[in-house]
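Let's do one together. I've listed all components of the complex below, 334 residues spread over two lines.
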Amino acid sequence: MSYSVSPIPGLRSNDRRGLAFLECTHDADINAKAVFEKLKEKIERDLRTRFDYWIDGYHHDKYYHGWPSDPRYKQCFVFKWRKGKVHHRLYGFLIHPTPLTNPRFQVCILVSHGTKTEEYTDLTELDGAKDLLTNEEVILAVRKAFPETAEG
Amino acid sequence: MIQRRHWTSEDDTAFVHRIAFDFVTQLEKRMEAMSLTQGGLAKKLGVSEGAVSQILNNPQNLTLKTIVAYARALGIKASIVAYDDNDPLNQRGPVNSAIFSTCWENAGKPSDFWSLNDNLRVVSTANVYSVTYHLCPVLSNYVGWSEAWEAMYKNVVETQSVAFAVPVLSKLSLTGGGEAHA
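Okay, and this is what the predicted structure of the assembly comes out as:
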């Protein structure tokens, strides 16, 4: 399988939310994990805090958000930070990997990194993340990483 | 995917980073609610906008004095809370400080232990009424609705506690209320 899903070391899930990276052996655009691992300590910790916030259910659009009102991108998600004048984005998609044992458990699978100079997200950049949701190999990789269990 | 250690266990600076970030997030939410810019906050503090930006973007070196100064400039206060969340190995990381402030607000913003206890009693009674309302239809399968309500109400008044359900159910059972009500 060319796709795999890997946890983010040091980040904990709860019974409502989890976060992980998608990796791919043949697609250089799937680079969220590689970018995250090269971040400087301060930025990495800022981002980890944003991850914690989302997992804990803290609402904070400035740090991350989805597009629940847009039918095209309602399963897409983005984490944001800024360094100087450059706006950074980690794009991903949302999925419920355990519909049988814990249907409310939601995972954000981070896929790609992008930069821009305007604050607002260009929606077309989400197409890549959205398309992965129709890829059976990707879905299998997610379900392998987050299997159905008695505890969910 | 079981994570053994939270990233804030890496070293003390990681933990400090996280709780400093929590504090700044609270400041920024307050500034947003007040429509106050970094320049506006700088003016209130009597410092440069760059100094404010430095604190908000790199809060890991915050001092208690700076915490108090920034909170007071925004018309709020700050507290240091030690808590035991049954996580001695820090596998889950810190509890978000916004959870503490939200709980305090939900408890009626008590300013002393008298009002804390009074407010908790009010909240508890509200919970009891809520639970009573939902349990009464269940109990009415065993005894009459009015008898169930009366028993619940009496228990609420006597105990001021949500721990009423078990004794009430036991009592009704012992007094022969176990026959299904048509």
